[in-house]
């Protein structure tokens, strides 16, 4: 049998999952696991069908979440990269900002949410701020390290060959730090996603959102919706990571022949 | 060697001093700005107010005679300890099994890849349906969150042991037990340690988050969230400061353990963020 290695790899990946799902389904079907406490794959599928085709609540919720994620992450990435570059290039900024940064990094993002709820109220802003923080620190830290790890010799060499500061920045420093920046951006997706779910849960009364959906389902003891939310969160995180950032990696650092760092 | 050690101690000392000085300067500036009445004190508390209120919490006692603030901190740390313990025991065992046997790896690897990215707090509502409120769901979710980085890194570590080492040990007549204790475990120790570190951080974060929604009455997460309901911003700010302080303390402790074990044994591995 000649199977495409790619297909084979997928089969290897999916077969244990299929076994688990089948066992899970059988256990709930024969009531060995209480279906009021544990959902089952078929129930999850059914609920997904309900919430997308019959009544597009899930899509609306997902749209709200993605909108918040895009704003918070975009803002965090933009400011994070700029600030990280500043901290990497200027010794004084680094001296003052790096202790503050290491102090702030050690606070869980979720701990800021009550403060944001208090300061700006229940709404998109709270969630966006939380996502922003989750993203910002990872990006700043990695960008700064990337810039600071560029060999001094490279900068000296380009200076002696007559490069002006603009050329040095765009041709030496930025590409040199890019592997690290993209690592930061990638980590930040996970952090933002986490911050999104957490903040949406804590902001009780916020309109829409996938975290909100799970949390609201709890008060109704609706395990099917909760499990559906979990599946969406898992798949969403994986998809964003692989599609968007995988692509970004492919068109930049892999294309330029830089080594890709394995996580 | 001695001079190098001295230098690194000196460096660490200066770093801590700088950190402290900048923190104090920041607090002083904050106090100054708020005393000029630029900031609305109902939204942004003054540092003196924050410390005063924290002190009040520290000196006020519960019905059983313990300090309120200490009870909050202690219940969070107690939960962290239990869930971290569960996460380490289960995570390291499954990780070693996954690294040891190809079949176990084949079965569990997709599951770990798929479930690992789910934020810990997303599990909280389900665990609350299963286990109710207070300690049980908080500890369970904390353990679950810490479990994944430990499993993942342990499996990677055991799998990354060079085949040559294993062959060499076998050809010199090592039995399974010696193999495991003298070859596999020491060479994967740095990976396991990385996983345990990541797991500890993840458990801590998740516990704080779950405390906010699992209505637990005690715990730092609950303290902060509750302060919002009663419009006590100073407690929110103070709670956040305590969180940062505890985390730095835990991090320092972990670093100390690392220096005494992994680094002493000469098994340093590059830090992953």
Nearest-integer average pLDDT of chain B: 82
Helix content of chain B: over 70%
Topology, number of strands of chain A: 0
Rough outline of chain B: globular
User: Helix count of chain B?
Assistant: 10
Unreliable sequence segments of chain A: none
Secondary-structure content class of chain A: mainly alpha
Order of helices and strands of chain A: HHHHHHHHHH
Relative strand content of chain B: under 5%
User: How would a textbook summarize the main sheet of chain B?
Assistant: none
Spatial separation of the terminal alpha carbons of chain A: 34 Å
How far the N terminus sits from the C terminus of chain B, by CA atoms, comes to: 28 Å
SS field, number of helical segments of chain A: 10
Percent of residues in helices of chain A comes to: over 70%
Radius of gyration of chain B: 23 Å
Number of DSSP strands of chain B?
0
Give a verbal description of the structure.
Chain A has 10 helices and no strands. By secondary structure, chain A is mainly α. In chain A, helix 3 runs antiparallel to helix 4, helix 6 packs antiparallel against helix 8 and helix 8 runs antiparallel to helix 10. Chain A starts with a helix and ends in a 9-residue tail after the last helix. Chain B is mainly α. In chain B, 80% of the residues lie in helices and 0% in strands. The longest helix of chain B is centred in the last third of the chain and has 38 residues. The radius of gyration of chain B is 23 Å and the shape is globular. The chains are: A mainly alpha (263), B mainly alpha (273). Chains A and B meet through helix 1, helix 4, helix 5, helix 6 and helix 8 of A and helix 1, helix 4, helix 5, helix 8 and helix 9 of B.
């Amino acid at each position: 049998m000649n199977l495409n290695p790619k297909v084979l790899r997928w089969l290897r990946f999916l077969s244990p999952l299929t076994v688990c799902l089948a066992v899970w389904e059988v256990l709930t079907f024969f009531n060995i696991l209480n279906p009021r406490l544990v959902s089952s794959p078929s129930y999850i599928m059914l609920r997904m069908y309900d919430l997308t085709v019959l009544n597009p609540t899930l899509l609306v919720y997902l749209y709200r979440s993605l909108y918040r994620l895009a704003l918070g992450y975009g803002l965090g990435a933009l400011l994070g990269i700029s600030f990280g570059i500043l901290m990497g290039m200027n010794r004084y900024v680094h001296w003052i900002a790096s202790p503050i940064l290491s102090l702030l990094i050690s606070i869980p993002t979720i701990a800021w949410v009550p403060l944001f709820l208090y300061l700006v109220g229940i709404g998109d802003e709270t969630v966006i701020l939380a996502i922003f923080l989750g993203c910002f620190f990872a990006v700043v830290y990695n960008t700064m390290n990337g810039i600071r790890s560029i060999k001094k010799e490279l900068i000296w060499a380009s200076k002696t060959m007559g490069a002006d500061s603009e050329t040095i920045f765009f041709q030496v420093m930025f590409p040199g730090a890019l592997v690290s920046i993209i690592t930061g951006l990638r980590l930040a997706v996970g952090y933002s996603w986490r911050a999104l779910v957490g903040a949406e849960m804590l902001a009780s009364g916020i309109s829409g959102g996938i975290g909100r959906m799970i949390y609201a389902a709890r008060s109704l003891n609706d395990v099917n919706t909760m499990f559906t939310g979990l599946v969406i969160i898992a798949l969403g995180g994986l998809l964003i990571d692989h599609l968007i950032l995988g692509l970004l990696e492919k068109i930049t650092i892999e294309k330029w022949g830089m080594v890709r760092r394995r996580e | 060697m001695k001079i190098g050690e001295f230098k690194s101690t000196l460096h660490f000392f200066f770093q801590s001093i700088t950190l402290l000085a900048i923190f104090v300067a920041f607090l002083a500036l904050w106090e100054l700005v708020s005393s000029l009445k630029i900031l609305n004190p109902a939204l942004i508390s003054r540092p003196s107010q924050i410390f005063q209120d924290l002190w009040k919490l520290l000196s006020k006692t519960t019905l059983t005679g313990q300090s309120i603030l200490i009870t909050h901190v202690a219940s969070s740390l107690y939960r962290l300890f239990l869930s971290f313990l569960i996460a380490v025991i289960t995570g390291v065992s499954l990780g070693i099994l996954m690294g040891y046997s190809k079949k176990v790896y084949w079965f569990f690897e997709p599951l770990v890849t798929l479930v690992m990215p789910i934020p810990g707090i997303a599990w909280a509502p389900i665990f609350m349906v299963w286990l109710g409120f207070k300690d049980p769901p908080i500890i369970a979710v904390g353990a679950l969150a810490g479990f994944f980085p430990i499993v993942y890194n342990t499996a990677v570590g055991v799998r990354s042991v060079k085949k040559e080492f294993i062959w060499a040990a076998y050809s010199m007549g090592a039995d399974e037990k010696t193999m495991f204790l003298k070859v596999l475990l020491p060479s994967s120790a740095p990976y396991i340690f990385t996983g345990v570190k990541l797991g500890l951080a993840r458990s801590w974060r998740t516990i704080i988050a779950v405390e906010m929604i699992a209505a637990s009455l005690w715990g730092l997460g609950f303290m902060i969230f509750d302060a919002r309901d009663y419009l006590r911003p100073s407690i929110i700010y103070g709670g956040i400061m305590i969180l940062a302080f505890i985390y730095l303390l835990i991090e320092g402790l972990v670093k100390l353990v690392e220096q005494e074990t992994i680094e002493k044994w000469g098994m340093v591995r590059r830090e992953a963020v």
